[in-house]
């Protein structure tokens, strides 16, 4: 009996031990399955909580028409696309117009530059000739010293200032004498003096608005003297440009003298060249350049006296008429001026 009891205890022990072992193995597996199930539930809940998903589903459920596409929205999108296309075309047209205006402006500027260059070409050619002549004069020793050039410039500036003042004074004197001629009913001389007065006004405007000479480029201010002449008890030396100016003064004097003589004869007034305002003023054609006003006046009056005699007597003893103007005969002009070459 005791032996059977021991065997039963052993069997029971083995049975319960095996059951406990199996239960221990089954318990972790059940726990793992429970945990996996819980993880799946949590994952499903997290996905349901993601933004937009439920809203999309809800929106899809609530707005099935919008999901398929609203016709009004489609029309608005089409209108917006058409407006964008029109705006793009308008911008392209504006850019093309800007380009056309730019091209046209560039063409006009090029054309204007071409015209300016064409107009400036004769001036450049003349300036080149003067520069060449100036360089040649320097090589030949015909150019004045820098000190003498500066003296001529200063004299020129003084002459211009003095002549402007003189013209202001003579305007009043000439107007008074013109009114006196009208009272004397010397209508031919009155018309002649009116023309003289108008010319004097033009001289005044020229001096007021004219530019100062370019002293560095004007050949008068650096050309050496080539003539001399005698007046009074002195000899004077002048270059070619001053000599030409004095020739002009004699011819202008002859012209104005001839017209004044004609006017007095037409008015049946006694011959008196010294009574004429043109002879007294003697500045017709003078602009303050190159020669002193006294020298210009002297040679103008020499021409005026001879012109008055020809005009009053209606003859051409000292001068001639050609192409609408009066001028002194060359031989008489040379006698009046008396220029002597220096070399």
Task: Please characterize this protein's 3D structure.
The protein has 343 residues and is mainly α. It has helices at 2-49, 53-62, 64-68, 71-139, 146-183, 187-209, 240-266, 277-281, 293-313, 330-337; strands at 227-231, 234-238, 319-322, 325-328, 340-341. The strands form two sheets. It has a three-stranded antiparallel beta sheet. The chain has a two-stranded antiparallel ribbon with strand order 3-4. Strand 1 (227-231) and strand 2 form a beta hairpin. The chain is elongated, with a radius of gyration of 58 Å. 19% of the residues are buried.
Low-confidence stretches: 19-28, 50-67
- As a percent range, the share of helical residues equals over 70%
Which structural class is indicated by helix and strand composition?
mainly alpha
Fraction of residues in β-strands: 5-15%
Which geometry do the CA atoms define? Answer: elongated
* Overall radius of gyration: 58 Å
Order of strands, main sheet, comes to 2-1-5
SSE sequence, one letter per element: HHHHHHEEHHHEEHE
Distance between the termini: 182 Å
| Largest sheet report | 3 strands, antiparallel
- Mean pLDDT rating: 77
Number of strands: 5
The number of helical runs is 10
Structural features:
three-stranded antiparallel β-sheet; two-stranded antiparallel sheet; 74% helix; 6% strand; 343 residues; mainly alpha
